[in-house]
Amino acid sequence: MFNSKNKRLYDLILGKLNANTQDVVFSGNYMFKFNKQVGGGGNFNFEIVSRDANALEFTTTDIVPLVDIQSIQIPFVEDNQRDDWEREFYVAIEIPSTRNAVTNEIKIEFDEANPKYQAVLETLENMSNELTFIQTVEENEVDVDYKYTFKVKEPTKVDVFVYGAKYYQLLALTFNLTSLSEGFFGNETALYFGLASDGSFGETAPYLLDNVEFNEIVAKTVRATSNIDNTEEGYTIDKRLWESTITVNFNGNVADMLLYKEKALFSTIKLEYQIKITNKNLNTHAGENLDYTINVLVTNVNITYRNNVVDQLTFKLQRV
Predict the structure, then answer these.
(1) Distance, CA of 2 to CA of 314 (rounded, Å)
(2) Domain-wise residue ranges, the chain
(3) Cα–Cα distance between 1 and 272 in angstroms, integer?
(4) CA 179 – CA 202 distance, rounded (Å)
(5) pLDDT score, position 59
(6) What is the pTM of this model?
(7) Which residues are CB-contacts of 238 (< 8 A; sequence separation ≥ 6)?
(8) Are 120 and 17 in contact (CB under 8 A)?
(9) Which residues pair with 300 in a beta bridge?
(10) What is the torsional sign of CA 88, 160, 93, 123?
(11) Residues near 273 by Cβ (< 8 Å), separated by ≥ 6?
């Protein structure tokens, strides 16, 4: 059976929303949209109640409907089945009404503390922090893993409408994402930087570099092994070197301040550091620990300050 990529992504978003801690249930079908009712005065038609017929008594569960509104796909002809997407989903959240006991006036006001709205914000925050995650789906009775990296936007207001004498706030959830069936994203590699003499150094936030670009080079020096009478040249390797050029956002943590002091000429000229490079998803894929730590020197640092632009440090490391 062929499987729809749009349906797979819809199920992914629906699963993320239903992982909330607010006890809020999201449901829907990616093929359906909010449609105007014929002769319904412009109201939107959708279900907000789920009935469980397996219980001894019928029970109802309030559901936040989720629908797939727009899908823009940019496919690539690559073995890793890469696709870039812009996806937009709508959710409808009921706006509760209150009646003033004195004036009998009905007040309808959206409350940001509404658990349904909080569930949406919680999901978006988790997706933003997670950066990269894996979805396992069954295709032709075989489990297939798909990997995603998301750029998450704040929900935007679309409309307020009335259905069944209740008011609903319609919100749009927009995502930019890339999906792969194989391979890795750059944000899966984490870099930790500290002094070589720092006994507290480890995979903790003070040492984490907010990596924008990481270029790593391993080179070998070679020499010819042939003599003057040989017609065919051969080589042997004498030495190997490691160096890298890294660009990071300057956030002011311990690692950043070490680089800042290098830039400001506060550090001793031969100060030694250590950098740890780790990719946990690669470790899982390979079935072994491929993390590594290298003692290094900072041989070049530069920063350019521009108005209304995030400060970034670009620096070069070479192995001690």
Answers:
(1) 47
(2) 5-180, 189-319
(3) 58
(4) 31
(5) 54
(6) 0.77
(7) 220, 221, 222, 223
(8) yes
(9) 316
(10) positive
(11) 193, 194, 195, 196, 258, 295, 296, 297, 298, 317
In this structure, what are the phi and psi dihedrals at residue 305, rounded to the nearest 5 degrees? Answer: -95, 125
CA distance 99 to 108: 9
Look at residue 146 in the predicted model and tell me its pLDDT: 84
Give the pLDDT confidence score for residue 172 in this predicted structure.
93
Q: Do the bridges between strand 59-75 and strand 25-27 make them parallel or antiparallel, or are there none, so unpaired?
A: parallel
In angstroms, rounded to a whole number, what is the distance separating the alpha carbons of residues 255 and 224? 42
Position 31 scores a pLDDT of 59
Strand 49-52 relative to strand 44-45: parallel, antiparallel, unpaired?
unpaired
Tokens of 104: 């009998």
Q: Which two tokens stand for residue 191?
A: 């870099």
pLDDT at 164: 72
How far does the chain reach from its first CA to its final CA, in angstroms? 56
| pLDDT for the residue numbered 45 | 45
Which DSSP string corresponds to 280-318?
HHHHHHHTS---EEEEEEEEEEEE---TTS--EEEEEEE
Predicted confidence at residue 277, as pLDDT, reads 97
Distance between CA atoms of residues 271 and 139, nearest Å: 54
Q: Which residues of the chain are modeled with pLDDT < 50?
A: 35-40, 43-45, 47-48
pLDDT score at 37: 43
CATH number for the domain running over 189-319:
2.40.30
